[in-house]
Amino acid sequence: MKSEQFLYALVFFLGLSVESSFCQNLGSQLSRSSKDPPHPPVPCQNHLDQFERKSKDFTTIILKNAVPVTYCTKSVNDYLAFEQSYKDLTESQDKNNVSCRSLYFNVDRLGVVETMYTNLQRVWKMGFCDDCYSNTSTSTLSNTTKDFFYYWKEINDCITNSSQSDPCLKCMSHYQKLNSFFDGIKKEKGDQICFDLQDAMNRTRILWSVKLNCCRDRAPSMLSFTIISAIVGLLPGIFYIAFYFWRRHQDRFDFLSDTNSPLPEPLIPENSPLQNLPENEYEPGPSGATASTLPRSTGAIKKEKTATADESDDDLIDCNKK
């Protein structure tokens, strides 16, 4: 009986030990599988490593040529290698015809590979770097870019070599040539000019006008500005004052004209029986008033005054004769 109990106990403990070891092995396998995802196929991994290296090289050369901006003309080879590595990664397949794109794109919300490519490409596009080249794929600079940097080198060499003389006088022709050439480019293309050219022109203008102070002769005269501003400011006041006096003169003239103008004579129709009658023979109206009782016109009063004045003058002359 005791031997059977001992045997049962031994079997029980052996079962527990086997179960615990099995669980430990299973747990370790699960932990390893959760930490170490399955490796992608070798060709896709190689393309990913290549994209990583080219992205790093392109980022490094952009940062080294950020100030002043020259990365468009100095990083074109790294940019082309970066683009090619991205193309290989997105278009390649492994030996089982599994696309590498399906392994690294649209697998999570971050999209690290695609986000990195988009950001680096945006730096190239925002600088209008393709405008520097007639053919970007062959790294061939355009004639416009070559001519601009030729004029730019001329003026910089002139300023550098004229440290003991006045660079404003010595290098004026070089600056005008470069400035007019850039203005022609801007008139043709607007603001979509290779940023290497834009930054070089902006720095040259700052050097010329601010540091060397070569635009001092073009500074506007404050005295002329003050005089012109004063004249323009006084013009409205002069206009209103002149208009006020002119209006007063016009009102006075109208008043005197109204005072001296005779009143109009009463109009009598041509076929009226009153037309041929003397003034004192007009028939009385409904109120019984006759022409003799009506107020006389201003013209008649003036005629009487004139006749009276003439008679007085005649009497005065007769008295003098006597």
Automatic annotation (TrEMBL):
Residues that span the membrane, as ranges: 222-246
Range of residues in the leader sequence: 1-23
Region listing for Disordered, in residue ranges: 264-322
A Pfam short name: OSTMP1
UniProt KW keywords: Membrane, Signal, Transmembrane, Transmembrane helix
The keyword Transmembrane helix is annotated on this UniProt entry: yes
Cellular compartments per GO CC: cytosol
Segments of skewed composition (Acidic residues): 310-322
Keyword set includes Ribonucleoprotein: no
PANTHER family hit by this protein: OSTEOPETROSIS ASSOCIATED TRANSMEMBRANE PROTEIN 1, OSTEOPETROSIS-ASSOCIATED TRANSMEMBRANE PROTEIN 1
Name used for this protein in its record: Uncharacterized protein
Organism: Phlebotomus papatasi
